[in-house]
Records
---
Amino acid sequence: MNSDLLFDFSVNRENKTVRILREFNAGIDLVWDAWTTPELLDRWWGPKPMVAKTKIMNFEVGGRRFFAMISPDGQERWFLQKFTSISPKTNFKTYNTFADKDENPELPGSDWDLNFSEQNGTTKVDITITNESRERFERIADGFREGFTLGLQQLDELLLTLSQK
Amino acid sequence: MRRDVFQAIADPTRRAIIALIALHAMTPNAIADHFNMTRQAISKHMKILTECELVKPDHKGREIYYQLEIDKIKEVDKWVEQYRKIWETRLNQLDDLLATIKKAEK
């Protein structure tokens, strides 16, 4: 990452919101495509060591993205994003829930508001995530946590098995 | 009723109490002195903070001293840090992808 580019992450517990600001060294057309095209999304959404796989996506108001985040051991965690508003190359909004593999949502969810703007060839993405409930807010990192800690858990289990011999 | 840490720290008074007793353990009366609040109102906040295990009452004679549970506070930070890390990693990956595409277009 170019260190001149902005990255700001802030949490507001009272409003149950998370705000993420990030600049990219690319024009708005390309950045917009990267956020709204399933083939491109799956190439960066991850995050490592996880990979994202979009099963269904129709980017239109009322449409949805149904995707899984897959951990290194093959465990899938499903997510459903409904597109509630789209202003091309300016803004889109989604309603997000965890889901099961059959696309049944787990309520409550969260609202995402994503704003895109370009200045001198740099594109800024401004994301606000508002959670419907405190409980949901607390669980926001679920699924990721599992992926990140998995490696360590496997090591723990291995050590336990070895020490019992 | 189930209490959670995030509910506890959502309240500005409770955050101020946490900041106050982070310095040293205090009695409810001493805490109340710092706020324009009744001892009763402070007790209510202390009850919630205790239920969330963010503070621990320590009985010394007839006085109760509340002290901060540092590990529990760290847990909160860890949670935010994890979520931040997710987005940081993800957006760095987008950086890489954008660079790859731009290179291919040249």
Note: The radius of gyration of chain B is 21 Å.
---
Amino acid sequence: MAEQQAVAPQGSFARYFHNIGSSLKAVGEGMAVTMSWMFRRPMTVQYPDRYDGRLNQFMKGLERADHGQKLPLVYRGFLEVDMDICTACMACERACPIECISITVEKVKDARKRVMTKFDIDIGKCMFCGLCVDPCPSGALAHTPEFEATSQFVENLVARFVPDPRVPYVPFKIPKGVDVERKPMGSVLRDIGFVGPKKDAFTPLPPFPEGKHSFGMHAAAAELSIDRS
Amino acid sequence: MLELLDSLLAWLGLDLGLQWRYLIAAVVGIILPFAYVLVFAGVFILLERRIAGRMQSRIGPNRVGPQGMIQWVADALKTLTKEDLIPDIADKPLYRLGPLLAVVGVVLGIAIVPFGGGLIGADLNVGMLYLLSVTSLVVCGMLMSGWASNSKWALFGGLRSAAQIVSYEIPHAMALLCVVMLAGSMSMQDIAGSQGWLPWDWFSVHSPMALGAFLIYLIAGLAEGSRVPFDLPEAESELVAGYSTEYSGWRFLLFYLAELANVWIMAVLGVVAFMGGGNIPTLGLVEGVAPWATATPAIISQLPFASMEYWLLTALSFLTIMFKTWVLVFIISQLRWTLPRFRVDQMMSLCWKYLTPLSFGIMLLIMVWMPLFPMVPTDQLPGIASREAIGLLLRGATLLLCVGAFWWYLKRIAFAISNARDKLYVKFAI
């Protein structure tokens, strides 16, 4: 420390006046600091009505020139599943403590194949704990840095990674010794219209067909669509 | 108020009986200052919240009205619509009386507060004494509501406020006593009128001791008004809300109003006693007085009522006193976001070990100083004696000390800004 610390005087009389002087100086220093903040722009982003694109920059992880902030890499935003590498192991569904993930795996008749006809994550229920991400064997399930999906209807907060049950997904088999490529973070959520410009916050989504689906009738269509990778 | 009303009635050519004039003066004299205090409290709370926002890198309330300007109306209406709860085991008459006493104690003080020129509720010849006495009612109200709430937090708050306000009344009164000695009067208009409009004619720079008395007055005034850093009676992290814990609805609002009105009384009293009040130069508008001489309240009151000069000088004086008061109010508000809260023992040691002995010493020194170096108004400068010249030099030195302290303050602000990590924007409004 090059700067020398001021030493309080020893005598009680001197210390008395030293206290007065130092307290006055300290109050002055403190007031100068608070006053200097009157000349700075507030940190607040007046989201969403004075949205100036800063949040998009946060999401992309770009540095803001003036505040030097970005979302951290471990930021836990919305969950996202890359269905092309999902193994249908359902470990995430079991791990979820509040049961916001619901997966339906069905067998296609005559084809001896399992297909996923439903992979819903209720973001409205999700508490972003990350317990589902840990057991995922292929890394298909992950937290994205996305955090904007406001909607007028709470049903729209269900992210449906199988948009149409008649076009099911075939589970992925993890090849040995090969690193699994994952789609870019957030791209799936944007493709299904959960976030991003395609998002329509003012119309309710059509209800998802409930119950088991019989793929006897649609087996051919299912077989066709399976090869779409 | 009565003098003003008499002038107004004479100007209008009306002749009313004394009882009617008293009645009108009383009603107007009650309603006008109270309405002013209500508006002041609203504007002050809004300003304080905006300042707090800027000092904490936030924006503050800006949604209700343009720039959040009527947020205070919304807050007040919301609080007024809340249910007025009275605890079942409370001492009900005292519980009801407490907030009323607190607000009455403050509002009574407004009677003698000058608004510039001849605008004053009642220019009592014991004005200062009256003010110090009636503001003690606030302690009664706080202690009463703390006791009557039958809650330990409220009781602690009430006791703390009693201990604090009773202690700090001594340095507060001693600092004001210095001014009373310098002015030779307890009347607020006389105190304001015995200073000049120029900063070196103010009592705060009369001598280094008077400057000390001003600082003591400010510190003790903060403590009297239970403002940060002396907000021990309502320390929300220790006592839920102190004496107002059990209150809701309009009774809670009364406590709030009393606190905010107290800030204004403290600021305007500081301005009148130490910062020259609403004194302005006469600007050649008064017959037989030099244009640079001070237009004291007495001079303005002697002008013919409702003449052009009268209104011009009164308005200028009003604006002057308002400007100075808001500067002090801003400093009080800024201190709230600068300083942490004192511990009880620190608060007591500050009062009894520092402020009280210092204020006694300052009073004695000023007693000695006054006959040695009499105060000369600036417009009587030619032909002063040597001792008066020494007094003038020391006054100038005190003013230089103030200017130097302000310069240091500006340098520290510049230092804090130039060492900021963030990019800075000199932009006040968002």
Note: The CA atoms of residues 168 and 351 of chain B lie 6 Å apart.
---
Amino acid sequence: MEDDRMPTAALARLAPPPGGERRLREALRKHQARGFDWRLPLAGAFASLCMLVLAYAVARPDASMDAEIQRAVAGAVAPIDGIRVAGARIEPVATRDPGVRIYRLAGDQRKP
Amino acid sequence: MPIDETELVASYRRVEHPLYNALYRMLWDAQECQDVLHDAYLRLWQRKRRVDAARIDALAWTAALNLARNQLRWRRLRGWTPPPEALDAIAGGDDPQAMAEHSRLHAALQRLPAAMLEVVLMAEFSGMGTREIAQALGVPEGTVASRKHHAVLRLKQWLGGH
């Protein structure tokens, strides 16, 4: 029968450095006292909020800007120095970019 | 059921000596062995809600061996070899014959592949059976038995049939 004794049985039994249990207890106490660190999650939440506000402000169509442009265009077709543009209409032209607005001055089809 | 501090420290008392002995034959540095032991128990503590009190000793072995394995990987990258005093310090006191035998045994252990060394050290020091070792290492029982068998054969061959 094969001899299956472990050659490692001759290995010396070493004593670990003293104070291991005390060090472990101290480490556990420190770990408990520290508790959950909220700083990183809070900073992350704040950064996300800022990004959200910024994205909303940039993407949102500005109604007041629309009205201002309409007024400016209307002013441009108004009589200046006795010259009057008559029979013109302002027509908004659809664009893909919400930040770009294009208007067209269209002639009155009813008049020759 | 989650573990409490009393159970964790009780496990540390049971496992500290055998696990330290096994780790020393992998890392050859007393301070590093104790650091690995502590890190392993702190990891268990961080996962205390998921740690089964009945398996805490085996889990400590698993965690410590994983950490030691990582440590060895780093060392291999840096080309580290154990200093001679790490072996001499435990080489059998003043008896020259015992010192020579221990030195040969340590040299033979260092030649073993890491997977075989872990099995041999666990079998020698942990008091666990093949099934428990297999669970702790996450390998089949047959693999543990095979690794142990081949490791013993190699050690006997290198040690000249002692």
Note: The CA atoms of residues 39 and 49 of chain B lie 17 Å apart.
